[in-house]
Amino acid sequence: MLPDDALTLATTVNAAAVVLVEGESDQGAVEAMARRQGLDLAAERVVVVPMGGASGISRFVELLGPQGAGLRLCGLFDEAEIGYVRRAMERAGWFPRYLRSRQELFEDAAARAGLAALGFHACVRDLEDELIRALGAEAVLGVVAAEGELARFESLAQQPDHRDEPVEDQLHRFLGTRSGRKIHYPPRLVDALAPGREPACLIEVLKSVRA
After folding, report:
1. Do residues 134 and 193 touch, judged by C-beta distance below 8 A?
2. φ, ψ for residue 46 (rounded to 5)?
3. What is the pLDDT of residue 94?
4. pTM of the prediction?
5. 132 & 119 share domain
6. Which of 25, 83, 106, 139 is 20 to 30 A from 151, alpha carbon to alpha carbon?
7. CB-CB contact of 46 with 209 (8 Å)
8. What are the tens digits of pLDDT across the range 77-90?
């Protein structure tokens, strides 16, 4: 979604808060987790906006945040993209001063903690990786089997380039091999989670929505 389209959407639904995520797969997972927790995003006037990657987050923050539409913002990002998020927060004047002057902080724990305090939470590697680790490989394979794709996964796992990889890496690759699959699976993986096994990043971003 383009920043201007996100602003139009937020204005049309009279949004009170926006959750910025990197892509549609993250959007589906956040919305599934909200349903799991009994949180009605529409009733709370919360919209989840896929940005098409973290590199353009500054424009979303500029248009939607306090200096623009005045909406409460929070979000999810892949840990490797922390630099984009940190710089967006710096430009908006949100990032804590004691961190803003330390340009060497890129993936430092203090930087992640500072962003989390602002409602922006990091996924280790990415959200698919978080979900695979939270569920465990056997349970993810059960979801893949339920979707009728176990044979396709086994075919990928037997390819020379992948047969020696850990099954978790094979599953991560499988979930990302088609854009439709990448969007399709995260809500189903969320629904399959055992109570108490929800990834912290998803729990925390929804707490930030309620804050």
Report:
1. yes
2. -115, 130
3. 76
4. 0.88
5. no
6. 25
7. yes
8. 998 898 899 888 88
Q: How many CB atoms lie within 10 A of CB 136?
A: 14
* Same structural domain, 63 and 118: yes
Residue numbers in the chain where pLDDT is lower than 50 = 98, 100-106
CA torsion sign for 93, 63, 17, 73 is: negative
What is the per-residue pLDDT for 98? 47
Q: How many CA atoms lie within 13 A of 78 on its CB side?
A: 16
pLDDT of residue 64: 93
> What is the maximum span of the chain, computed from C-alpha positions, in angstroms?
53
> For residue 168, what are its two tokens?
């978790």
Half-sphere exposure of 158 (CA within 13 A, CB side): 6
Phi, psi of 69 (to 5 degrees): -75, -10
Strand partners, 48: 19
On whether both 56 and 84 belong to a single domain, the answer is: yes
Give the phi and the psi of residue 141 in degrees, each rounded to 5: -60, -35
Q: What is the pLDDT of residue 95?
A: 65
70: region left, alpha or beta (phi > 0 left; psi from -120 to 50 alpha): left
Same domain, 53 and 109: yes
